[in-house]
Design a protein that fits this description.
By secondary structure, the chain is α/β, with parallel strands linked by helices. The protein has helices at about 15-30, 40-50, 70-80, 105-135, 155-175, 195-200, 205-215, 225-235; strands at about 10, 30-35, 60, 90, 100, 135-140, 155, 180-185, 245-250. It folds into 2 domains: about 10-185 and about 225-245, Rossmann fold (3-Layer(aba) Sandwich); about 190-220, no CATH class.
Length: about 260
Amino acid sequence: MGRLSGRFIAVTGAAQGIGRAIAEDFRAEGADLFLIDLDGGLLATAVAELQASPGGQIYSAQADIADPARVAAVFADLVAQSGQSPDGLVNNAGVNVFHKPLETSDSEWRRAFAINLEGAWSCARAVLPGMIARNHGVILNIASTHAFTIIPETFPYPVVKHALLGLTKSLALEYAGQGIRVNALAPGYVATQKVLDWWAGHADPAAARAETMALHPQGRIATPAEIARAAVFMISDECPFMTATCLTVDGGLSVRQHA
């Protein structure tokens, strides 16, 4: 029996990076999965590779979580297909929107909020009725150390991630009496393709990588698998009294005053 046996969990942004690692760990721990991603091709590949190993049911849907109507439709289709709604949700999908404040266009401001905040709410709104009906459910929002620290010229990303913590706490208190826990998980730097591409975009990628590593007390950044292990704990029933909180997994980065 895995730590998530008998659970049915939706994961957004599940085709690569942290989301893919979470899907792999959840499947290994016995969960049935509903995987959502904007990139249908990458999602199909991820599902095929996950199904190559033993495990439970995997449902999937290509969807832009910035479209509330599409989110509602794919969750409705899921219930029609499976006969049940998820009792767990990981809001992992997100996009980096980094600018100087006065150089941020209206469209970039809206894009940051539509995906990173409104998309999380649309998915939560889709699963909450089923969770309330069964008097049990867990929502985990993947936040960031940007939710409580500020890096200049990354606007409005930290604004949105601060708001995501507000959403987490608000939903947690609203539904705590109905058996539902809502928490956030805040990674720091993680070795995803986005970070690799960011290093590659520098004139000296090796120097950029070394500079990032030097910021961290352990001299390295997290792997997606390390974030996934924390997600297993938080979405499981191993922490039944944990709600309205944020677990930071950043190797000590956010408490270090100077590199």
